[in-house]
From TrEMBL:
<feature type="domain" description="Cytidylate kinase">
    <location>
        <begin position="9"/>
        <end position="210"/>
    </location>
</feature>
<dbReference type="InterPro" id="IPR011994">
    <property type="entry name" value="Cytidylate_kinase_dom"/>
</dbReference>
<comment type="similarity">
    <text>Belongs to the cytidylate kinase family. Type 1 subfamily.</text>
</comment>
<dbReference type="GO" id="GO:0005737">
    <property type="term" value="C:cytoplasm"/>
</dbReference>
<dbReference type="Pfam" id="PF02224">
    <property type="entry name" value="Cytidylate_kin"/>
</dbReference>
<keyword id="KW-0963">Cytoplasm</keyword>
<keyword id="KW-0808">Transferase</keyword>
<protein>
    <recommendedName>
        <fullName>Cytidylate kinase</fullName>
        <ecNumber>2.7.4.25</ecNumber>
    </recommendedName>
</protein>
<dbReference type="InterPro" id="IPR027417">
    <property type="entry name" value="P-loop_NTPase"/>
</dbReference>
<keyword id="KW-0418">Kinase</keyword>
<dbReference type="InterPro" id="IPR003136">
    <property type="entry name" value="Cytidylate_kin"/>
</dbReference>
<dbReference type="GO" id="GO:0036431">
    <property type="term" value="F:dCMP kinase activity"/>
</dbReference>
<dbReference type="GO" id="GO:0005524">
    <property type="term" value="F:ATP binding"/>
</dbReference>
<keyword id="KW-0547">Nucleotide-binding</keyword>
<keyword id="KW-0067">ATP-binding</keyword>
<dbReference type="GO" id="GO:0006220">
    <property type="term" value="P:pyrimidine nucleotide metabolic process"/>
</dbReference>
């Protein structure tokens, strides 16, 4: 499918709300480059956790200059420990500046074969792609998100209890919503999608319908 013009989709969401699932489905359907920006912060968090002595802004700067999409596919980045550390290091203004260029390049200059780009994260709708053609704020209630993340971690054979996951999700919400630098928020122009009582498929159809309508208008 080829679109008349290239499009940019921006999605913000709290942890485990299903944003990545929807971003992947939408990107596949409309042939968009997909970037899970949380994975960049997770990659940096993993460096902090595994190479604490070497961790510095200059090391991260070097890593960001060489960053590829493949680097973000590392399964180690999926753990709760890495997610929690990502939430901590992402409060650092300097770190946010270092990850900016890769996100801008993906959003505004995706490879020619794509019809555009779709990015998800915490500050995408107002900081990274303020002029996005479509903006969504995807959420779900805390317990539902914790249960989904718990099941996901169990499938990855991680040793963690539901209560630990719930606590971690609550802490991450607190940290992501309340930080001073680029906090998670729903912008006035973002369409709210609450996935709590919706299947993955029905969420996808809802978002697709919104995009189709505007593209046809
Ligand atoms: N509508 C849904 N119904 C049931 N399960 C869902 C739904 N959407 C997503 N999930 C599941 O919930 C888990 C979290 O989803 P996903 O990774 O898409 O969230 P996310 O918002 O991208 O999380 P994060 O930002 O923390 O990476 C996954 O295991 C996914 O399969
Ligand atoms: N645009 C973004 C994306 C992510 N973060 C931080 C805050 C999150 O808690 C953490 C992990 O993200 P996830 O993989 O759960 O989407 O990374 C951010 O500050 N800005």
């Amino acid at each position: 499918m080829k679109l008349k013009k290239k499009i940019k989709i921006a999605i913000d969401s709290p942890a485990a709300a299903g944003a990545g699932t929807q971003a992947k489905l939408i990107s596949k359907h409309f042939n968009l480059l997909y970037l899970d920006t949380g994975k960049i912060y997770r990659l940096i968090a993993n460096i902090k956790l595994t190479q604490a002595n070497r961790y510095s802004h200059s090391l991260i700067k070097k890593k960001m200059l060489k960053l590829t999409m493949k680097d973000l596919q590392n399964k180690k980045l999926l753990s709760d420990e890495v997610g929690t550390m990502a939430s901590i290091i992402s409060k650092d203004k300097k770190i946010r500046k270092l990850v900016h260029a890769f996100q801008i390049k993906s959003a505004y200059h995706p490879p020619k074969k794509y019809n555009g780009s779709c990015l998800d994260g915490r500050d995408i709708t107002y900081k990274i792609i303020p002029n996005a053609d479509f903006k969504f704020f995807i959420t779900a209630n805390t317990k539902t998100r914790a249960l989904r993340r718990y099941k996901e971690l169990k499938d990855l054979n991680k040793k963690i209890s539901f209560n630990e996951v719930l606590k971690s999700i609550k802490n991450r919400d607190k940290s992501d919503y309340n930080r001073k630098v680029s906090p998670l928020m729903r912008t006035r122009d973002s369409i709210l999608i609450n996935t709590t009582n919706l299947t993955k498929r029905s969420c996808f159809l809802k978002i697709k319908q919104i995009i189709d309508r505007k593209l046809k208008a």
